[in-house]
Structure to design on (1096 residues):
């Protein structure tokens, strides 16, 4: 591996730990028994061995010498900055417990467990990856651990390697599956513990006990850096509207956090669009209105932040897509004989009036994509829609109409951006480096204390790291029952942006001013070595949620 | 202006100056008389007052009290990191000469001079912009100062404001025009000096006396940061080929520098494609070959860097576009009656066999764009082509054919990125902050020494800043005669990537290894406060060119 100067300098960084963990020996203090956030009876019935367990908090304690044990670790799903530090924290934690302890990494995600694809993670390897971004130490994958045959295949290699506990680093679905696996191994009395760690740049795995998922801090700061640079360009050239789409299909936390960091002219929050039952035209009108208001002041430039999942949150679009899926499925044969150039009119003539009107309002390219690019099940692929271009085209059309009516005087030229891969593997910020290392270290202590079905938890995260509170939360506590693929399933509740939450309220109270004024903030790149107010601030979301 | 924590911390940075300038008082040492790089007689005839002047080097000297003077400054063309530091260096330089001196900024580029749109830049204003990115202090613009009527309009406001000298911060064209203006004012004996400063992220304004243009360092490092992050993601997920287009239409310095920083699997250099007379198919085949070779090792992922101007460098594409422009111009009437769905076949049937074959090989979307999206003069808009998508589509097509023939076994899925606006207004790196401040300060000394038609020059830039050599270079020295819009014009020679230059040779000697191995480097974000090897290294291009 050829290393950059920053990587070499950063390797020496010693992540900070909560005081209780840094003291060397810990004791687990049990709180009250817990219950799931909803559907208590159903969840309890499904998790008889892992339901109702107490919260755990670690405090400084007496060192106890435990017999040697082996631990396995899995990275699951999309990359998030800090994954390597979870693993190095876990490694240092188990080595502290007993230098004989071994850590095995399963390769390319949960599939590595099922396929018995693994490697031992030794000190030499771990040292190459401390404080680095990416999941390349063992790779990640999207195989879902769901079936008993997978659990049994996994147990074969677990037995063979003498693994006492498995740590699964993943998002809400992966942690749900970690708990199902914990329950299964407990029910079977296999003596294998399973611990989860909260990962996702999307920020949608959080609740009272899990303040934030790791990676959100670094990813948002990286996006805010480049958005800030674009805003400075925008404000210098004064001739473009930049439409910037941000990763995050199921929640708008990234867009909201970036908006709080950079103060754009417009930021759309999917959850608000859904709650207010806004149509696509409502969203377009809102943006066009801001463009027109700024143009009236002579400002033909601006920035618009758009969450990736927007289209799927617009109720009317959901209805259109649903009818389109049904229609194309039932009329596949007939549709295949329609000439390409006539397909659009054909669809318009066949849909219900409401959906027909929306379909007709879509730019040609998007309409074509919706009818042609379907997934293997024949469904419309909403994720392929370039929402940033869709919106800017529709805004341009609306402005042209307003110009005709004399309601708009200005020039409108757009640039488009989509940021996702740029931030998922950035080198972790000090916050994520410390938080991840603490999560991994905490996981080792949960294992030492014989826990299973717990998620590693580190709280009080807006305080200095020494004051953070490490512990464990029963995963069942975060669950409710939801319909997934037509079946009721126990799942961890996904945290969407709350319209009555402090971050959204802070945004909503300022957005009208940001729309007309040009009060862009330029956060600049993540710094690792400078003054603490530059290097160590957590996200605005976290600060606002904690009342800071 | 709401400021970020980094912006506040960074405002306190005092840029470093060459020792001679830092000493407070300087003397100008004149070197030998100069001549233009080519076409000496023609250039001399066009610039009788500004041709053949000596090189200037500043050394520490005696302070001389000069009468108060006013200076004007203009930002011309695209943004580049450090523009604000050129202005603050210029400001501090003239204030040091005499605190009574005043600096006026012309607003939104050269147009501000012609339209008499200006503001006085006072200490309060300057202090808000030190070490920041962007050109927003006075804005920039693309008006070209070319005609005598513009020069005379400019002189009106220059006279009114008592301006002794004008500093034009711009790229090769803007500096050419600065010299034409210097010559004009000298010929008219208006007593107005004009000094240029070398700006452009593209890196194509450089020569023996101008080692680098400002902004190249910061912009490339910002692009390398996000490309590095994408590479780490690529190497973690192991399932995508990322096609990454980089700004820079007329030269590939940015792509080359980024390649040297991140070690991608593929980087295309336009100048090489042109020199070797490679066809579009040759480029596609080269990339597809790397994809196939990696797939044979089980690596269905990788990164490809593409310079924005590539298509315009492919000789065969230039010929196609030229024929297409002629054909569409002479057959406009007939073409307008051809049905959209038949236009492609129509064009294929009409072009010469060579061009027809290339046109037929283009993906449908690109072919449509070439025939439909034309500029106001009816010309094909090459810059609208999404080269990154064009190449990945054509690579996919070629791989599919090779799969049929059993020559390729693998999966190919692509992601696309285009980076430009992300880096043009980044906060300047230490290098650019120091270099720009020194260029501005040097400009003030050239003014104090009565020089005109000079470009501010700071050399020996791979040494610590104290050892940098400040001075001035007659702009005519960098000129030759070139055909522009059908006329022979005196212009500064554009610096393209030299295939026998050290940066290209370093790249070429390693690229075959980078293609098959995965030896990505992850430079991480620009650091301002850390160890010197992290914060102060100049670009690889500059180091290699200086034999470091």
């Amino acid at each position: 591996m050829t290393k950059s100067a920053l990587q070499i300098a950063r390797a020496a960084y010693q992540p900070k730990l909560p005081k209780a963990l840094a003291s060397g020996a810990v004791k687990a203090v049990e709180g009250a028994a817990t219950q799931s956030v909803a559907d208590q009876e159903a969840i309890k019935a499904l998790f008889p061995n892992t339901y109702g367990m107490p919260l755990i908090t670690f405090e400084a304690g007496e060192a106890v010498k435990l017999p040697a044990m082996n631990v396995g670790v899995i990275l699951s799903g999309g990359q998030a900055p800090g994954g390597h530090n979870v693993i190095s924290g876990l490694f240092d934690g188990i080595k502290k417990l007993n230098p004989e302890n071994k850590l095995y990494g399963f390769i390319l995600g949960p599939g590595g467990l099922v396929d018995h694809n693994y490697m031992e993670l030794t000190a030499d390897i771990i040292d190459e990856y401390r404080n680095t971004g990416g999941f390349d130490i063992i790779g990640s994958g999207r195989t879902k651990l769901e079936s008993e045959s997978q659990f049994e295949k996994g147990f074969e290699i677990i037995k063979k390697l003498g693994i006492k506990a498995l740590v699964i680093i993943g998002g809400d679905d992966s942690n749900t599956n970690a708990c199902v696996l914990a329950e299964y191994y407990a029910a079977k009395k296999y003596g294998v513990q399973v611990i989860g760690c909260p990962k996702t740049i999307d920020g949608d795995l959080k609740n009272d006990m899990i303040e934030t998922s790791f990676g959100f801090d670094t990813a948002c700061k990286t996006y805010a850096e480049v958005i800030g640079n674009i805003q400075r360009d925008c404000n210098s050239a004064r001739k473009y509207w930049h439409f910037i789409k941000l990763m995050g299909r199921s929640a708008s936390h990234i867009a909201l956090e970036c908006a709080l960091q950079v103060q754009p002219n417009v930021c759309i929050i999917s959850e608000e669009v859904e709650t207010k039952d806004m149509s696509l035209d409502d969203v377009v009108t809102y943006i066009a209105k801001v463009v027109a208001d700024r143009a009236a002041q002579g400002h033909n430039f601006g920035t618009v932040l758009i969450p990736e999942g927007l289209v799927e949150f617009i109720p009317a679009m959901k209805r259109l897509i649903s009818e389109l899926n049904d229609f194309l499925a039932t009329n596949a044969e007939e549709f295949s004989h329609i000439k390409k150039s006539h397909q659009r009119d054909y669809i318009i003539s066949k849909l219900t009036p409401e959906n027909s009107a929306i379909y007709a309002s879509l730019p040609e390219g998007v309409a074509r994509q919706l009818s042609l690019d379907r997934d293997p099940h024949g469904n419309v692929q909403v994720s392929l829609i370039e929402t940033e271009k869709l919106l800017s085209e529709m805004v341009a059309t609306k402005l042209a109409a307003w110009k005709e009516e004399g309601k708009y005087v200005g020039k409108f030229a757009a640039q488009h951006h989509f940021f996702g891969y740029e931030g998922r593997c950035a080198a972790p910020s000090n916050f994520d480096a410390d938080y991840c290392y603490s999560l991994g270290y905490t996981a080792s202590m949960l294992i030492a204390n014989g826990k299973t079905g717990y998620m590693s938890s580190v709280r009080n995260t807006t305080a200095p790291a020494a004051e953070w509170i490490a512990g464990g939360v029963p995963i069942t506590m975060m669950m409710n029952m939801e319909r997934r693929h037509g079946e009721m399933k126990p799942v961890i509740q996904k945290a969407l942006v709350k319209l009555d939450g402090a971050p959204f309220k802070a945004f909503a109270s300022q957005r009208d001013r940001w729309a007309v004024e040009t009060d862009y903030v330029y956060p600049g790149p993540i710094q690792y070595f400078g003054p603490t107010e530059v290097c160590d601030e957590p996200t605005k979301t976290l600060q606002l949620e904690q009342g800071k």
About this structure: Chain A touches chain B through 62 residues (CB under 8 Å). The longest helix of chain A spans residues 216-237. The radius of gyration of chain A is 25 Å. Chain A has a mean pLDDT of 95.
